[in-house]
Amino acid sequence: MSKRSRIAAFFAALGVLVAVAVVLTIAARPGVVSAAAHPGSAASSTTYSVSADLDTCGAGWGSGAKAHVNGGDQTFTVTNRTVAGIEVYLQAADSKKVYLDLESIGAAARATARVTLGSGRYRFVCLPADADPVRGPTVMVGAAPPGAQLTPGIVPVTRNDLIPVAQTYGRWVASRIPVLRQQVALLGDDASEGHLAASRHDWLTAHQTYQTLGAAYDAFGDLGDAIDGMPAPGRTAADDPGLTGFHKIEALLWPGSGAVPDTTSGAIPAAIARLASDTAQLATDFADAEIDPNDIGLRAHEIVENAIQFDLTDATDAGSGSTLASIDAELTGAEQALAPLHDILSSRYEALAATMASLVSSHRLVETYRHADGTWTPLASLPRADRQRLDAALDEAAELLAPVAAICDIRRES
């Protein structure tokens, strides 16, 4: 299941229509896109046609004699009456919690969605692309019928909320790059002295360190591909002449077929020297780089998704049989990406503790395949039942992390 599918499934199951920008993007063309905010019978909903424009945001709900409406299910068809795209919130006027977020409604396009509201004061807020927010009239909503499953509201996360989070994470990454360089230097030293076993151990240690930095990959740019890229389609790490970095060295150190590589000559020293040069350049470049605050909430989920898609299928192994070591490092990376978001999420995500526990339990399961000498059981040799347990554990972690991406989707101040 893709990242977007997992996020959509979470909100559908919970009955929440928050951060529809992440769940569902509305096409910028005339038409209707529906997003069910709450399971149940549409016939029980009160239906409103609502305008979204610069003058009458929210008109059609609570205007005039309808300034007070009954609580419970509310179905809104929101029509963009401007000549450009617009974003629309349904917001609690007092707490500023958002109960409905429709992003990128194109000119003349409509979006239909349903929420279940309890008593309180609500308003629509229209956010044109190139203009200040327009706040609609405040509508008094009465109590919902007994037993109604209310749509939870979430206080929006702003760019200013996430800037210090991105900075904290960036400092952690910056502290790990010198460690990575030292580990690559040790790999070069042991290889030059002909110590194959030590070189393989050094490679694994350095590669795991790099794999923990997954939330910063976009900030690494092309250097990320040079350091840990995969072979071109139709090629292997051994025969791709354009491949550099960890996987090229992996294929050279573990050539298969019983071959014993000479680490002191041929392609191995050159590949290690290139990796050392690239990691040195990474240290220089990252000193001036910034983690995009808009990305930080996505990364923990993406890291686990990538582990499921690429590592659990053994697509990233180039001969070392260290796929489980990579997954172990990626789970560390996901934990490090999630950690600075704790204060933001603690008041917004009820399953935060369960999410953190799922990462920890997945980590412990993976580490049962690490041996006392630092080697790992090859993924390919695991019994089917073990593979299924790993897949289930990572799937659970990915499902729980999906809402983090939605909750941390940056929204404009309204």
TrEMBL record:
<dbReference type="InterPro" id="IPR018976">
    <property type="entry name" value="Imelysin-like"/>
</dbReference>
<dbReference type="InterPro" id="IPR034981">
    <property type="entry name" value="Imelysin-like_EfeO/Algp7"/>
</dbReference>
<keyword id="KW-0732">Signal</keyword>
<feature type="domain" description="Imelysin-like">
    <location>
        <begin position="167"/>
        <end position="401"/>
    </location>
</feature>
<protein>
    <submittedName>
        <fullName>Iron transporter</fullName>
    </submittedName>
</protein>
<dbReference type="InterPro" id="IPR050894">
    <property type="entry name" value="EfeM/EfeO_iron_uptake"/>
</dbReference>
<dbReference type="InterPro" id="IPR038352">
    <property type="entry name" value="Imelysin_sf"/>
</dbReference>
<dbReference type="Pfam" id="PF09375">
    <property type="entry name" value="Peptidase_M75"/>
</dbReference>
<comment type="similarity">
    <text>Belongs to the EfeM/EfeO family.</text>
</comment>
<dbReference type="GO" id="GO:0030313">
    <property type="term" value="C:cell envelope"/>
</dbReference>
